[in-house]
Design brief:
Elements lengths: L26 E2 L11 H10 L12 H11 L6 E4 L1 H13 L6 E4 L5 H8 L4 E4 L18 E5 L11 H9 L6 E4 L20 E6 L12 E5 L1 H14 L6 H11 L2 H24 L2 E3 L6 E6 L4 H10 L2 E2 L1 E2 L9 E4 L3 H17 L2
Helix pairs in contact: 1-7, 2-7, 3-4, 3-6
């Protein structure tokens, strides 16, 4: 770092995104992207909008917000569109956390939460997951803090029910509870309906996973009108043109083609169940996932060792250095062909360790 960097950032440890190497063609199962291309409607609408890129994008994101409101059964004034769901999560840290209202989130969860806290100078509490990596909801009751819960959780893939989330909301009436539903479309229960009952709920989702738009960077949030007004105050104070025109058009196109999204999610869920059974046949312990990835370990193989051997074979998965989960691999559910390639490689590695 340079000698000019503000002292408040000198100890900042940035988020580490999944690697995107270009040295060879990999079977890429490390960043939870969809194996399917975006909807043709999305592609066509984005291409048409590219003809008008000399103009600013709509700061109100009206066409997209109206369609999101229609899709989720809320008012347009209860929706905000953002540059990926990471942006709205950062807005929530900015709007609802400070030295008097710290953040709280699980000790094993999305790695960006502590980074958002640190970059915004927000104190935070880490709440340990149970021994089986599930969340004990009573640990989140009456905290007096802004709560962030990824549901399904990452990297475990495990999820709370809508009723469990409702209990957390009931027991934190004076604090915002952010439910990050980046992976909800692959089998978990969404709690969007609960925004009609709880004014302290903010639900965030993304177009990156189930809607095949990771490269477009589009997310959104649904909450009470008052909460969305708060978040728009932050948005207009940082970057009012935060979603580009082509992304807005592609997002609208995706929402006009929900059957395509649902079919892809169904296929990924089917591939996930098949893949889990195959992993268990190889002696893997696999956590119960409702996401488009699984979290698995094998007592015969080290996590780091397996990750490196797979990379040598042209296959990318995600491995984490945190001690409690260092022996696990997070594996994106790709096509069946990709998963078969991975399984063959794992069998070779297991043979080598005999």
């Amino acid at each position: 770092m340079s000698r000019f960097l503000s002292a408040k950032y000198k100890k900042l440890v940035p988020y580490t995104p999944g690697e995107q190497p270009k040295d060879m063609q990999y079977v890429k199962l490390n960043t939870n992207e969809s194996p399917f291309p975006p909807s043709k409607k999305a592609q066509e609408m984005a291409a048409e909008t590219a003809k008008k890129l000399q103009l600013y994008s709509d700061p109100e994101c009206k066409i997209l917000r109206d369609k999101l409101a229609e899709t989720f059964g809320v008012k347009p004034t209860q929706v905000i569109a953002t540059n990926g769901s990471d942006e709205i999560l950062n807005f929530a840290f900015m709007a609802y956390c400070d030295e008097n209202t710290p953040a709280a989130f699980a000790d094993i969860t999305y790695g960006f939460y502590p980074v958002f806290a640190d970059v915004n100078n927000v104190p935070y509490e880490l709440i340990p997951l149970k021994e089986d990596f599930s969340i004990n909801i009573t640990d989140y009751f009456n905290l007096g803090k802004t709560i962030f819960i990824a549901n399904p959780n990452a990297p475990t893939g495990m999820a709370l029910s809508k009723n469990q989330i409702a209990e957390i909301l009931k027991n934190n009436p004076d604090n915002i509870v952010v439910i990050d539903e980046a992976y909800v479309d692959f089998g978990a229960e969404s709690c969007v309906d609960l925004v009609k009952e709880f004014d302290n709920l903010l639900v965030t989702q993304t177009f990156s996973k189930s809607r095949s738009m990771a490269g477009a960077r589009l997310g959104f949030g649904i909450a009470s009108e008052a909460v969305i007004s708060d978040l728009n105050t932050i948005r207009y104070s940082t970057n009012p043109y935060n979603v580009n025109s082509m992304t807005l058009a592609a997002g609208y196109g995706v929402l006009c083609d929900e059957e395509y999204t649902k079919a892809n999610c169904k296929k990924i869920a089917e591939n996930r169940e098949w893949f889990v059974s195959e992993l268990k046949e190889l002696g893997y312990e696999v956590l119960p996932s409702l996401a488009n990835f699984v979290f698995a370990k094998n007592e015969r193989l080290g996590g780091r060792e397996t990750y490196l051997k797979l990379k040598e074979k042209g296959i990318l998965v995600r491995q984490f250095e945190k001690e409690r989960i260092s022996q696990y691999l997070r594996i994106t559910i790709g096509t069946k062909e990709q998963l078969k390639t991975l399984l063959s490689a794992l069998k070779e590695i297991l043979e080598e360790t005999k």
